[in-house]
Amino acid sequence: MPNGSRTEGGAVPSAVVNRLSMYLRELHHLLADGKQTISSSQLGRRLGFTDAQVRKDLAHFGHFGHPGIGYRCDELIDEIRKILGTDRQWNVGLVGVGNLGHALLGYKGFASQGFRIVAAFDADPAKQGQDIDGVPVYSSASLAEEVRRLRIDLGIIAVPATYAQATADMLVAAGVSGILNFAPFTVSVPEGVSKVGVDLARELEQVTFSVMSRLRAAAEPS
Amino acid sequence: MPNGSRTEGGAVPSAVVNRLSMYLRELHHLLADGKQTISSSQLGRRLGFTDAQVRKDLAHFGHFGHPGIGYRCDELIDEIRKILGTDRQWNVGLVGVGNLGHALLGYKGFASQGFRIVAAFDADPAKQGQDIDGVPVYSSASLAEEVRRLRIDLGIIAVPATYAQATADMLVAAGVSGILNFAPFTVSVPEGVSKVGVDLARELEQVTFSVMSRLRAAAEPS
Questions:
Q1: Residue A209 and residue B103: Cβ atoms within 8 Å?
Q2: Is the domain of A113 the same as that of A73?
Q3: Angle at the Cα of A112 from the Cα atoms of B17 and A41, rounded to 5 degrees
Q4: pLDDT digit string, tens, across residues A165-207
Q5: pTM (two decimals)
Q6: pLDDT digits (tens, 9 = 90+) for B134-156
Q7: What's the complex ipTM?
Q8: Which positions in chain B touch A109 (Cβ < 8 Å)?
Q9: Number of domain units in chain B
Q10: Which of A20, A207, B14, B123 has the greatest number of C-beta atoms within 10 Å?
């Protein structure tokens, strides 16, 4: 199967992984609303997918439904968290405490999914020793030491593009398993390290593509 | 075809649109390196996709290759920009000038793809009248007026989750065509407006999924 994805190291397309994340969020909403079970068509409809899509996505990983019942929300949450690896806590180190780094340190969406930013790093001595949203800022020079001491699994790169590769190299040398890169530069990592690049312009291109598709469809004779 | 995507309003999966963005970036690199033409297998290899994937993605939109030559880089760049809608400039308004808003105003990746942030909006009077990276900050109350005056096409939501829906409503009422939402809250928009939600934890889940896939593969007897 072609990978067709930004995620490396697996045969499952990143679009499937992306939808698993969306199913997980929706199942949490359902549980919070007191719903115990849901069918694939109900789950799909709430997110704009077909029931076949939901079943196909989950079939990559096993059989999770119950005949005549559908999915048990709490059970499926556990299973998806296991698949995504978020049934455990991940310690995250963030490199680069500029505006973006600040924003990420204050981002509420990480902790709720099992990601705990335990340290931030910056080359600027004026920032070192600060505490931002409960996260201490260390010198970049101490990165390797702190990654080991704090058992940091994942690194987030929030430095300018020119420092992105050097930062990735430092994180890899320190022993992280995966990297999320926000710098507008494609970093190289060795095979045993996972990486995902966030390109914010690409997200805007999804919006304009959708706008243009609508305009094109409206212009077509029906 | 199931949509299977975060993008609304089109039958083409968002994963395809995502890859078009990646092809576009790579073609720009190739042109900058003095390369005039490229085959689907060369383009695919540079990004970790098969040549079949590249051809299938482009076949959604037409026939762009030349027998015995492959793709002409400049020609394919023009075609992909037309498909994505980035062959024109889009005026963008950003709402919420906190850390994330600041980071987005300074993000270099938007302008290079045809996105021009022409105005920022914030409810805090202390921020109004400021100029951040060349972008003036207006009061949220003047949003409708400025969207019309500055011909703003797209809105970026960078406010806290509790204000996300009200901000989306204001942008829609003001007449934007599309919205990119960074708030950790799913906003509703009417059918004629495109929206994409950015969930940063979902990006980290792509990383952990890849890490877990690697660990699972290593644990399997070969």
A1: no
A2: no
A3: 55
A4: 999 999 999 999 999 999 878 899 999 999 998 888 888 999 9
A5: 0.80
A6: 999 999 999 999 999 999 999 99
A7: 0.86
A8: 184, 199-201
A9: 2
A10: A207
